[in-house]
Task: inverse folding
């Protein structure tokens, strides 16, 4: 059973006014449980609007959203359960911190779920461990921490709810390369250990290629494609035309293919590039 | 949901009324209000109503917007109307115990109600057709004589401009924070008054923190660009009087004269 499924999902902002805008247009997608999915699209392509449907923050203008096979909007009183099931980390999540200690802030979600004190303590400490927060940070005020630490506190605040699906909207925006690799590495580790579904929204094809198995590409409010990373990179030209940056390696191989070399076009990392060039050279040697 | 709140009710358009100099518009609205209070009989008020019909027509603002602008002041209109009805002596047309209503009272109530409605609709036309920034600009220019009395006119106008500039930003920010806390299971819709007030803490604290941060950043950015108050400051958008500003002023003047003439020719109602 897919963890998330949408049927003809559409969403229109400010319908009936001069500012009317279709942000999501007839999206049909099925995301299997346990998948690590990269969500990519240009600014304004509708990806942020799309993910806000997955935990019921936005109600579809048309179409349906199913979480674990259940219609999200069938019973509005159960919406909160779905919000705990699908954890959503917004862009710049550090701006949502409000408690006087890190511990209390991370425990906000679990407390809303009505967990017992012991359960709360356990999920808070587990979540803090996942994002590399130490014991000494827990009693500090979140406002004393550095930018990267604040962000990790905010991410821990969602992980602590033990969601079955974790969605992160550009969790690395505004971080330096070191902080970016650290957070993405921790998310990958979390995915591998817990085995739940993770959706990672990003601008960077390179990050997505490195961390996710499947990619969901949004373009101009529509679903452009949902497929394996390699398959998506076959269409690197179209993706570049959407204004997204394609990894340099992929660009080189597309160029080679255009020049008439018989290379595969779905190359997106060093290892594959090396194998492909060696294959090509050895075939030439034989000929 | 928060997005739907319109603050400043500017209704973009290209009509002559939109293009009028905002200073002139403010003065003309004041003149229009004076005219409404000069009018002491139904024909005079009719001029006021016709004026509205005409100007809304020219501006392209839908007439139903008048109703929208009246909605918040309905209690005030009813209150003044009813009060005026009871406290006027004259030909009694209704009596019940100590409550008596005179014919003059009813007439006064009707004229007062029409006056207030016209007043609100007229001032709303100003805010419908003038962007908030143009309004603060005009207020600064109109109040500039007060600078001699050491009133910080420029600073007041700058504060208004900045406040207006940041309203949409703060609304957007509030929306985002609300969504983020809802995603963490914050319950904003149910519970009693105390619980609801408490549920606002996770929204208000981040909002204040970010408002202060923004204020700091803005102050720094303004200082970096050598902002030092209004002295010697020139403006990118100069306000110029054009021929239609004079036409509009002439028209309002004519309306006022018409009302005065009607007052002289037709005996007042009471």
Result:
């Amino acid at each position: 059973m897919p963890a998330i499924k949408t049927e003809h999902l559409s969403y229109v902002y400010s319908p009936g006014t001069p500012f009317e805008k279709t942000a999501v247009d007839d999206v049909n997608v099925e995301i299997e449980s346990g998948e690590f999915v990269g969500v990519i699209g240009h600014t304004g392509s509708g990806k942020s609007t799309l993910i806000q449907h997955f935990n019921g923050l936005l109600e579809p203008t048309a179409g349906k959203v199913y979480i674990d096979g259940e219609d999200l909007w069938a019973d509005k009183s159960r919406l909160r359960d779905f919000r705990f099931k699908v954890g959503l980390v917004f862009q710049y999540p550090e701006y949502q911190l409000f408690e006087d200690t890190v511990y209390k802030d991370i425990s906000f979600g679990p407390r809303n779920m009505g967990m017992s004190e012991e359960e709360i303590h356990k999920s808070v400490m587990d979540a803090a461990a996942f994002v590399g927060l130490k014991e000494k940070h827990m009693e500090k005020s979140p406002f004393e921490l550095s930018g990267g630490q604040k962000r990790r506190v905010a991410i821990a605040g969602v992980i602590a709810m033990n969601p079955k699906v974790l969605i992160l909207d550009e969790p690395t925006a505004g971080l330096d390369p070191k902080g970016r690799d650290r957070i993405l590495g921790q998310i990958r580790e979390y995915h591998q250990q817990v085995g739940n579904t993770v959706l990672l929204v990003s601008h960077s094809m390179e990050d997505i290629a490195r961390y996710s198995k499947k990619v969901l590409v949004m373009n101009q409010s529509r679903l452009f494609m949902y497929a394996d990373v390699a398959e998506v990179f076959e269409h690197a030209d179209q993706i570049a035309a959407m204004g997204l940056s394609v990894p340099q390696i992929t660009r080189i191989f597309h160029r080679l293919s255009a020049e008439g070399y018989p290379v595969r076009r779905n190359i997106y990392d060093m290892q594959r590039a090396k194998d492909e060039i060696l294959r090509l050279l050895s075939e030439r040697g034989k000929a | 949901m928060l997005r739907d709140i319109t603050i400043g009710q500017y209704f973009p358009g290209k009509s002559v009324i939109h293009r009028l100099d905002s200073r002139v518009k403010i003065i003309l609205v004041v003149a229009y209000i004076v005219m409404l209070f000069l009018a002491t009989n139904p024909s005079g008020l009719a001029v006021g109503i016709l004026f509205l019909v005409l100007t809304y027509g020219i501006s392209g603002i839908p007439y139903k917007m008048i109703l929208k602008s009246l909605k918040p002041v309905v209690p005030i209109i009813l209150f003044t109307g009813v009060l005026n009805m009871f406290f006027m002596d004259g030909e009694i047309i209704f009596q019940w115990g100590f409550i008596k209503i005179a014919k003059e009272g009813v007439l006064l109530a009707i004229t007062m109600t029409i006056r207030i409605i016209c007043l609100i609709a007229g001032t709303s036309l100003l805010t419908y057709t003038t962007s908030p920034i143009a309004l603060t600009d005009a207020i600064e220019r109109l109040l500039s004589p007060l600078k001699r009395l050491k009133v910080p006119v420029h600073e007041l106008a700058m504060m208004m401009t900045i406040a207006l500039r940041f309203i949409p930003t703060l609304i957007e920010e509030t929306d985002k924070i609300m969504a983020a806390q809802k995603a963490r299971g914050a319950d904003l819709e149910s519970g009693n008054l105390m619980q609801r007030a408490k549920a606002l803490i996770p929204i208000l604290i981040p909002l204040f923190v970010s408002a202060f941060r923004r204020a700091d950043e803005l102050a720094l950015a303004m200082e970096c660009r050598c902002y030092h108050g209004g002295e010697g400051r020139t403006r990118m958008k100069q306000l110029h009087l054009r021929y239609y500003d004079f036409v509009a002023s002439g028209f309002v003047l004519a309306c006022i004269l018409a009302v005065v003439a009607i007052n002289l020719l037709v005996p007042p109602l009471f």
Summary: Chain B touches chain A at residues 3-4, 173, 176-177, 179-187, 201-202, 205-206, 209-210 (CB under 8 Å). The radius of gyration of chain B is 24 Å.
